[in-house]
Structure to design on (1054 residues):
């Protein structure tokens, strides 16, 4: 039997040192809503758990350079309750609100939802669409990495041994911007996305789309940034023709599998349906912002 | 034992009731809400060990050898058992199969089939010990789908099995070679061919339903201990403590008097806790380790190692005349049962058409073994699956002849005195009243909202009685304890207490029902089939009448008057008339405290094989909306109309109606065991086995119809099973009304519905 070691360091450097020195499997834990479940199901048998909840700079939301910096151990509910963040990034909040139940969101962290590397993680497509950047701290120093480059496959990330995500940076919001996320699940809640679409777009004063980022989840080994889908909207008034191009682009980007959560054909079909609905929701929000 | 109550329940329609018909807080309410209730996993015994099971990775394999020596050597391991530690009872016999179901002997028959178990001082040691057990398997081809299992080239599970009930001329089964078909069962009445010749419209369809998990939240858990004298104590969550005792006695070869089964609070059963899984294993481990052993299943073990209700394949044909009279009905039904017989499939042909007065019916049913856990009971076992088909065709026929959905059903409805195809003649029944209430309710009278579809369906369940043994003890302060051996699966303790309080004329909080262990009472049949509140009402009202008679005698002796000079009303004994003499009334408490000066304790017991359960009928109305771009269904409005005979505790009756409908919504829309090509279940958890959550269902409206059952002191009929029977059919009919094509397979999940919508488009 492996003896499980639990550490709750008070500083980021101590956490990095613990992870770097670990002999067997080491897991970072914030809320534990994935790690503990996986241990209970005998999917992982870690030697070391590094609890990062007690590291002060990893928790909370603060303004930075006109945008926001969000600590990686910030819980879903903390983010939902942050009025200024929620007003700026309603699409990110759409995603966070769909994670588990209120109780689960009271523990689950933003960094955990990303690093668990589930293709269906609900906060990830809207973070990608938002252009959020992860700050990675490790034995060799600090680097900033776009969120879409963190997951590399189901359960796998690009983080090197000893590295932790400490925070996320959400860039300043341009005028006339709106974002939205929707997912499809057979149940209304407490479910895992069969497919999910996030769109973040910016309109100029004339209603012309000047920037758009589109991300899809649960239809490939990782959440994907679909550049062609964003390009389909840029330079348009996000009219029916542009949305049709968007729909075609997201469907073309889907690389789903047949599994217990849905068939390939169903996922591709419904991803397009969601893309249209999400575009209209993001458009409405963009138009409603000053 | 003959009792007056069987002949004369004492039911009086005009009886004035003070307690029955109100909804007081139930016994377990506070403890369950605050988390204080003791479930079986809360039981702790001194020196208790943790038991864990090793389960087969193969859906079908011969066990070549099992080597447990390394596991036994691991420090902290106190016992290891395998199939060799259980008495070897002949295969293909009920107890032989029961033994092999809990612990494989020669072969494994499904992924998750237990092959060994360990008891250790901690869970982590037990888990590590399991990894040290070496099992050598010879993998065999497997079959899960019941129709595939019937094919001549299908892998055979049991080389000894020959189909029972084979008739010449049925090409599907033969009795002279091994087969996966356990039994062929034929049931019918009249001349079906003549009936179909008389029909103006005939509709024939095929239907598929998937096995359904009962959805209890509490996993199986038990603690077993064994004394130096060999007396076994078992604490467990069960719907059938006495049945467990008797079956344990048979398969472990221990006298029933040496086995005490104590039921705990039950965290949901719905039929799933009528069969044991962990219990015999915990006992064998405890006997070997000479220490108490607790086994608690994980959710994954619940899904992979316990039984859902059968999946089915059916072909159903019904014909009617233009005037709405159904002239004939025919059905061929296939039931999936896991490795061993026991699906209760004969319920299906008996109940599927019962509520319609049909003169010509032919049914042939097959029970088929397959490589998945043995099926178990679930609310109205095997009936909702086939009603899914019957009520679909009924709705289609009504549309074809242009008749109102309820009028068509009313036209063919069984009335008092109707005779069923299984040769029972009904007494007073409430199907027509139920249909009339459905037609009159606000939901049915309201127009279908734009963009939505409406479905109607009806259902029937026999309702049961059976062996029931209870005692009633009056304490010296006049409060009353009733000791019951049935399980409280749905708050029956309060309903039973209410009937006793009503009969005794005392406040309901003066009556307390306690759940007995098997040493305390005579045999009680399983708590299932909507039998419990009905049967306990009969038995305990009998007890109450006995103590009233006893106390009247004591009052007579206290007053020194003849017994017939004492009358009882509203909880007090009074002189029957002025000629008896002037005496202050004596309450039950007044007499109860005089046990020392009278004849001792005041108590009664009653042991009966209760009969007279009145059949139950229901009608469901549902409105749905379908997202035609995703195939997602939203249940917009749902009304359950059902005959309760008499609602003892109306809030609990409503809870039964609502709970059944909600379970049916899950069965209809998303619940499904998903097996891979490798025969392994892919979704053994509630994340991907998609039971509905609260936001998936609207408030379920209820209409309680009360057509009293004259065979019960208060007129009640069981209400536990009927509420799930019509649900999937009603929802399928509503979806059909909405999208123009009625689904014929469950679950009606978004991918399937989207496919159906696309095919509809292509056909146009």
């Amino acid at each position: 039997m492996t003896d499980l070691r639990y550490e709750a360091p008070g500083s980021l450097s101590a956490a990095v040192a613990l992870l770097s020195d670990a002999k067997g499997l080491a897991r970072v834990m914030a809320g534990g809503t994935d790690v503990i479940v996986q241990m209970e199901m005998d999917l992982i048998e870690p030697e070391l758990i590094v609890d990062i909840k007690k590291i002060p700079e990893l928790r909370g939301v603060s303004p930075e350079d006109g945008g926001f910096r969000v600590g990686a151990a910030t819980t879903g509910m903390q983010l939902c309750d942050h009025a200024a963040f929620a007003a700026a990034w309603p699409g990110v909040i759409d995603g966070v609100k769909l994670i588990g139940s209120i109780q689960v969101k009271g523990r689950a962290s933003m960094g955990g939802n990303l690093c668990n590397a589930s293709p269906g993680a609900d906060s990830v497509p809207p973070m990608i669409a938002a252009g959020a950047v992860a700050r990675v701290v490790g034995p060799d120093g600090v680097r900033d990495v776009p969120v879409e480059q963190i997951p590399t496959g189901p359960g796998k990330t690009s983080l090197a041994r000893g590295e932790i995500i400490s925070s996320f940076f959400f860039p300043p919001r341009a005028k006339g911007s709106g974002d939205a996320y929707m997912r499809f699940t057979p149940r209304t809640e407490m479910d895992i996305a069969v497919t999910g679409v996030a769109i973040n777009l910016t309109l100029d004063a004339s209603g012309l789309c000047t920037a758009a980022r589109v991300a899809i989840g649960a239809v490939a080994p990782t959440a994907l940034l679909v550049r062609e889908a964003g390009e389909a909207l840029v330079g348009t008034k996000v009219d029916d023709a542009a949305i049709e191009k968007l729909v075609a682009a997201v469907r073309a980007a889907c690389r789903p599998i047949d599994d217990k959560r849905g068939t390939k054909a169903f996922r591709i079909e419904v991803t397009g349906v969601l893309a249209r609905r999400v575009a209209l929701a993001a458009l409405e929000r963009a138009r409603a912002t000053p | 034992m003959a009792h007056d109550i069987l002949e004369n329940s004492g039911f009086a329609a005009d009886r004035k009731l003070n307690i029955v018909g109100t909804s007081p807080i139930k016994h377990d309410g506070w403890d369950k809400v605050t988390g204080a209730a003791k479930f079986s996993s809360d039981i702790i015994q001194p020196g208790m060990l943790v038991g864990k099971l090793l389960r087969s990775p193969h859906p079908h394999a011969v066990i070549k050898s099992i080597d447990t020596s390394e596991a036994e050597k691991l420090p902290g391991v106190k016992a290891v058992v395998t199939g060799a530690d259980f008495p070897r009872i002949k295969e293909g016999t009920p107890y032989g199969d029961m033994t092999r179901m809990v612990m494989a002997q020669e072969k494994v028959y499904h992924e998750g089939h237990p092959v060994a178990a360990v008891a250790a001082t901690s869970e982590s040691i037990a888990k590590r010990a399991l990894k040290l057990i070496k099992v050598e398997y010879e993998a065999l081809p497997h079959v899960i789908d019941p129709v595939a299992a019937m094919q001549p080239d299908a892998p055979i599970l049991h080389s000894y099995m020959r189909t029972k009930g084979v008739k010449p001329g049925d090409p599907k089964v033969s009795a002279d070679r091994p087969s996966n078909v356990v039994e062929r069962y034929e049931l019918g009445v009249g001349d079906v061919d003549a009936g179909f010749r008389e029909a103006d419209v005939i509709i024939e369809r095929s239907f598929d339903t998937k096995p359904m998990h009962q959805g209890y939240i509490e996993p199986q858990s038990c603690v077993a201990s064994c004394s130096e004298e060999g007396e076994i104590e078992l604490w467990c969550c069960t719907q059938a403590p006495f049945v467990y005792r008797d079956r344990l006695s048979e398969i472990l070869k221990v006298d029933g008097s040496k086995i005490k089964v104590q039921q705990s609070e039950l965290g949901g059963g719905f039929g799933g806790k009528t069969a044991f899984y962990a219990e015999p294993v915990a006992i064998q481990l405890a006997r070997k380790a000479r220490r108490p052993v607790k086994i608690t299943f994980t959710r994954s073990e619940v899904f992979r190692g316990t039984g859902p209700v059968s999946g089915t394949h059916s072909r159903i044909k019904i014909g009617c005349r233009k005037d709405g009279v159904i002239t004939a009905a025919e059905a061929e039904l296939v039931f999936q049962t896991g490795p061993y017989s026991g699906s209760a499939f004969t319920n299906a042909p008996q109940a599927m058409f019962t509520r319609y007065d049909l003169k010509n019916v032919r049914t042939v049913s097959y029970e088929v073994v397959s490589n998945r856990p043995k099926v178990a009971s679930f609310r109205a076992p095997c009936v909702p699956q086939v009603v899914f088909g019957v009520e679909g065709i009924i709705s289609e026929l009504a549309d074809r002849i242009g008749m109102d959905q309820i009028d068509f059903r009313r036209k063919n409805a069984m009335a008092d005195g109707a005779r069923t195809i299984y040769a029972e003649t009904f007494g007073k029944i409430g199907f027509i009243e139920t249909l009339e209430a459905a037609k009159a309710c606000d939901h049915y009278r309201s127009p279908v909202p734009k963009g939505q579809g409406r479905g109607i369906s009806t259902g029937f369940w026999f309702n049961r009685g059976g062996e029931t043994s209870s005692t009633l003890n009056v304490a010296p302060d006049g409060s009353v304890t009733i000791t019951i051996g049935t399980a409280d699966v749905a708050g029956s303790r309060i309903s039973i207490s209410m009937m006793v309080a009503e009969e005794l004329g005392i406040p309901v909080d003066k009556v307390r029902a306690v759940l007995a262990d098997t040493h305390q009472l005579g045999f009680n049949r399983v708590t299932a089939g909507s039998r419990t509140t009905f049967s306990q009402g009969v038995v305990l009202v009998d007890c109450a009448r006995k103590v009233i008679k006893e106390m009247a005698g004591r009052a007579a002796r206290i007053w020194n008057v003849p017994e017939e000079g004492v009358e009882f009303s509203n909880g007090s004994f009074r002189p029957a008339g002025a000629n008896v003499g002037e005496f202050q009334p004596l309450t039950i408490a007044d007499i109860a405290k005089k046990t020392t000066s009278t004849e001792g304790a005041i108590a009664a017991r009653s042991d009966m094989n209760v009969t007279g359960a009145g059949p139950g009928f229901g009608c469901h109305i549902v409105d749905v909306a379908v997202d035609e771009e995703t195939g997602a269904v939203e249940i917009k409005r749902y009304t359950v109309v059902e005959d309760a005979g008499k609602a003892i505790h109306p809030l609990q009756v409503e809870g039964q109606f609502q709970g059944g409908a909600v379970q049916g919504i899950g069965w209809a829309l998303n619940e499904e065991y998903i097996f891979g090509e490798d025969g392994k279940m892919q979704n053994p958890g509630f994340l991907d086995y998609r039971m509905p959550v609260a936001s998936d269902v609207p408030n379920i409206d209820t209409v309680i119809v009360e057509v009293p059952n004259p065979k019960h002191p208060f007129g009640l009929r069981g209400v536990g099973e009927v509420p799930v029977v019509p649900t999937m059919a009603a929802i399928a009919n509503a979806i059909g009304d909405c999208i123009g094509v009625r689904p014929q397979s469950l679950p009606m999940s978004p991918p399937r519905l989207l496919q159906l919508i696309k095919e509809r488009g292509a056909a146009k």
